[in-house]
């Protein structure tokens, strides 16, 4: 179902758009036809621009300056490229291009579980799947369905994949999750009783851990769950152990046009990794995100009761928080 939605929207934009433009040109002239075509081609980019510019007026996470105009424009352009790639190619047409990689003779210390975000599918991770296979690291990337159902419904699919990876290597996998996927990981862990032997670490990329204002515009079940004051999020947090953040690395950016205010992407006690001038989807394609995942694959388990100390604290940041700004 998820892939069908993406194929339909992609075909609508790239087939219906030119056909409609041709019809308008035949009726009202070439200028009108080109204007309609420009709307289909450039419309999504122009629609996204105000959401980036508005971030200039939102308070950043503690210790960060307000996003500069040049950073917001750079983030917008990077996001246009990422959105075009993901929603018009990888997810509609190449979601099954790279199968899960579960080699019986693997020597990797652990596998990687890849969880996509809202309105996406496993095709989001195509670049990661290529690199993980080349690096000899087992992985499973699932498509979370129903696409617009409750986040709790994804737990059984995640649990089955986590068990397969752990059976392969003998160690709990690393979870890498984009956006809503980080909440799916938390909901899954709650469903297994927060068992410490089922989890290594969770790397979240732009996850609305404390909700996002933008979700107030959504009407689907999982969109409503991601609202900043949703009963679902409040109950999830209430039922989690106090040291939950010790299992998390939270990569985020104050130019994220989807998850804002930016500090909602952070969990208390987690390692905080800030990427400037990147939009929401672009976080997936940053080399720093993949590099951090590989570090965590090879890292020894961390005692969540001990907070790691930063090697270089961010200027102006709270010294009690582990934080790092990445280039």
TrEMBL record:
Transmembrane segments: none annotated. The keyword Nucleotide-binding does not apply. One of its GO terms (molecular function) is hydrolase activity, acting on ester bonds. Residues 174-214 form the GPI inositol-deacylase PGAP1-like alpha/beta domain. Signal peptide: none annotated. Pfam families: PGAP1. The keyword Cytoplasm does not apply. It comes from the Bacteria. Keywords: Hydrolase. Gene3D superfamilies: alpha/beta hydrolase. This is Alpha/beta hydrolase family protein. It comes from Roseateles depolymerans.
